[in-house]
Amino acid sequence: MHRLMSRIPLFFFLLCLTNAAVDYYKESDGIDFVPEHSNEWVVRIDEGDEVADLVANELGLENRRKIFDNYYLFINPSVPRRSKRATNDFTNLLTKHEKVSWAEQQQSRNRVKRDFIDKRAQEERVYRSVAFSDPKWSKEWYLKDTRPESSSHLPKLDLHVLPAWAAGYTGKGIKVTILDDGLEWNNSDIMANYDPKASYDLNDNDDDPSPRYDPTNENKHGTRCAGEVAMVANNSICGVGIAYNAKIGGIRMLDGHVTDRVEAEAIAFNHKYVDIYSASWGPNDDGRTVEGPGTLASAAFIKGITEGRNGKGVIYVWASGNGGRRQDNCNCDGYTGSIYTISISSASEHQQSPWYAERCPSTMATTYSSGAYKDQKVTTTDLHDSCTDDHTGTSASAPLAAGIFALVLEANPQLTWRDMQHLVAWTSEYAPLADNHGWTTNGAGFKVNSRFGFGLLNAAALTEAARNWVTVPKQSICQIEPTKFTPQRISAARPLEIDFEVKGCEGENNVVRFLEHVQLYVTISYTRRGALKINITSPHGTRTTLLSERDQDTSTDGFKNWSFMSVHNWGENPKGVWTIKIMDATGDMENLGALEDFRLVLHGTSEAPHRILAGPRVYDENYNTVQNERSEKRQSLESLARQQAMVESNKLASKHDAYGQQDSLDEMNNIPATDSHWFRLLARLNGNWLQ
Ligand SMILES: *[C@@H]1O[C@H](CO)[C@@H](O)[C@H](O)[C@H]1NC(C)=O
Ligand SMILES: *[C@@H]1O[C@H](CO)[C@@H](O)[C@H](O)[C@H]1NC(C)=O
Ligand SMILES: *[C@@H]1O[C@H](CO)[C@@H](O)[C@H](O)[C@H]1NC(C)=O
Ligand SMILES: *[C@@H]1O[C@H](CO)[C@@H](O)[C@H](O)[C@H]1NC(C)=O
Ligand SMILES: [Ca+2]
Ligand SMILES: [Ca+2]
Ligand SMILES: [Ca+2]
Ligand SMILES: [Ca+2]
């Protein structure tokens, strides 16, 4: 099944593939359309095939085939395949030929799908007509364009939720539960949607998940996450939840000892009743932790996936983590890295990856959240029957996704947990985030980025695709283990590179031809874990960083059978040569260790998912058209914010009085105190497991 082999040049293959993909997308691109002339002529010849062949020969053309009736497709090999200019001389030559009654050079035409145009117009109407009485509705910028004309250099922002509402999807009949530090269920903007059957208090073992109140409002997190999903609409209170007709519950679990058992009970709580679980927490984002679900929590995920929603599987939504400032990597977090969770990252209102966001290829998609400096934050319910527009971090992103998925399940209750992930891959938008580094197109035509997964969630596209979705074929799992593997030394001087051939379990009943998740399990011993960087390259040339350097991680524990997960090969055929590269990114010659063992686990299907039969994904480059906003002003603001974050983090590390120093820094930089307060807040949340 597997053998080590010498390196073969993959480069040319990759190159051809990428070019083909680029061409493909260009054709569907409607911006600044300039018609192009091809090297094809359609020629009418009334005297039959043989005469057509003769004419073609005579003029140095190739008679490709008869189209229908007396029309033939001729190719002129001496003319470029694409050209801005028409080859009129040649057309005249053809037209004048006595056997030719008509001829025309073919040119590309601008074809935009009709329903698409109609939808745009329809959407404009939807956006104009939505008026809610809720006072904070105007602050829900990620659902509508709230910026005044004066800042119209910014793109139109939203997750396309309004068109999904207009289509009738508001979460009716869907049960969402928030795993967190409690839920103020009697909050006036929650109570009408509160569902006691989706709620429990695992910290005090009772049925009432109300948070414990303290002077610092430490336990506001769960209530804030819940409101994003299910604030009551149009009741003149606070805002509007994305799934404002869904039922919302809360599991109080973070306000006490969090054990494997507590996590497991939360993850599988009333799992035959709840549809969607949203978790905005995880192992410490300190950049030096490697932790995942324990035995029981792992079993709980399997229960939810196999027994939930009548066997279709519950949807687990997970915040991807806030450790960006500490170079944390979400693949060192086994909750986000699980194939069962849909891990969600953040983008700021400026369509940028925020400073707190982590990178890793297990992230599936992105929603909006806070960014740098004065970027808008997220509006939601707060403790003491109040409301806030100050919710931040990837914490705020996951519940927005959970709310959107509630609309999707309402649109099609038959979807399985894997259908939902496929839908995310097919509909998330790359265009609004295209200005960020790190996008690649994989071998199946999906655009992926370790900061954003498949891109920004698009609620309208998701619900629409969900309606006619054909359930994906059953999951196959193919494991590739090296036979007779001897430990391989790793050092700064010598990166370890392993090429191995994968057949994807061909000939067996678990053959994988269309990939979903890829997991690389490794056991590595190393004197400094954070120095390690791991890349994997698929036979299609898709190069993915499974683990990036984490300079805070000085652990000598290495990795013990740790799974690094990637969704970046989605849709690819795994057959061929894969390359794993393990490097020491520090260059420190004193570091030393070895790859003790590894195993590649491929998840996917043997049969083609229905959607892929119609060809690779065509991206809408115009979606929420992003204009180039990298003005000097913007850049200087962002670098200021970054500097400040660094100062903040250094201060925390040296345990100085952060508050006193911060104030003088604020004066120096003339930044309003509220913004720096917010950096501090996130720093504190990190310590408390919250994301
Ligand atoms: C909110 O309620 C008002 C008054 O009942 C109504 O006119 C309006 O259409 C409602 N808005 C939405 C979006 O349903
Ligand atoms: C919610 O319940 C708490 C404690 O049970 C109570 O103090 C508070 O007044 C209630 N809030 C509302 C809006 O009823
Ligand atoms: C690892 O992969 C990333 C792309 O994900 C690439 O930028 C980087 O150069 C690769 N490193 C090596 C040493 O191949
Ligand atoms: C590694 O972990 C996987 C999944 O948890 C497990 O199935 C496998 O047996 C483990 N391998 C070793 C060598 O412990
Ligand atoms: Ca209680
Ligand atoms: Ca409301
Ligand atoms: Ca993390
Ligand atoms: Ca995941």
TrEMBL record:
GO BP, sorted A to Z: peptide hormone processing
Residues in the signal sequence: 1-20
Catalytic site: 180 (charge relay system), 221 (charge relay system), 395 (charge relay system)
Comp. bias intervals (Basic and acidic residues): 209-221
Keyword Coiled coil: no
Keywords in alphabetical order: Calcium, Cleavage on pair of basic residues, Disulfide bond, Glycoprotein, Hydrolase, Protease, Serine protease, Signal, Zymogen
Keyword Nucleus belongs to the record: no
Cofactor requirements of the protein: Ca(2+)
Source organism, top-level taxon: Eukaryota
Region feature Disordered, mapped onto this chain: 199-222
GO molecular function term, any single one: serine-type endopeptidase activity
GO annotations of cellular component type: cytoplasm; endomembrane system; extracellular space; membrane; neuron projection
Spans traversing the lipid bilayer: none
Domain P/Homo B: 471-608
PROSITE patterns assigned to the protein according to its UniProt record, in alphabetical order: P_HOMO_B, SUBTILASE, SUBTILASE_ASP, SUBTILASE_HIS, SUBTILASE_SER
Family: Belongs to the peptidase S8 family. Furin subfamily.
UniProt-recorded name of the protein: P/Homo B domain-containing protein
Lineage, opening ranks: Eukaryota, Metazoa, Spiralia, Gnathifera, Rotifera
